[in-house]
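User: Some background: our group keeps a shared notebook of sequences we're curious about, and every so often someone picks one and asks for a predicted structure to add to the entry. Today it's my turn. The entry only has the sequence so far, pasted here. Could you supply the structure so I can complete it?
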Amino acid sequence: MNERCIDCKAPATQLSPFPLCSLHWTERYAKGPLRGEDGELLPYKKSLKDLLKEMGYWKEQDESVEEWQDRCKKHTSGKSIVKRMP
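Assistant: Of course. Here's the predicted structure to add to the notebook entry:
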């Protein structure tokens, strides 16, 4: 596949409806698993953020990336972190 993403010129991984890389396709089209108040599936990245916040794994505004990584490692150490999707 020689197609390039129309947004960033990275190699395209999706060709329909037009060439996009995985990142830009996800930003435009990926949905779920959570639903909004209107019953419609939320964009994937919003769903992921909401699930991670609920589980305590989202980065806090005032913490560094290193602090966040350490907190997540401590939080998940020896635990099963599987979250059933609704």
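Suggested note for the entry: The helical segments are 22-29, 44-55, 65-76. DSSP finds three helices and two strands in the chain.
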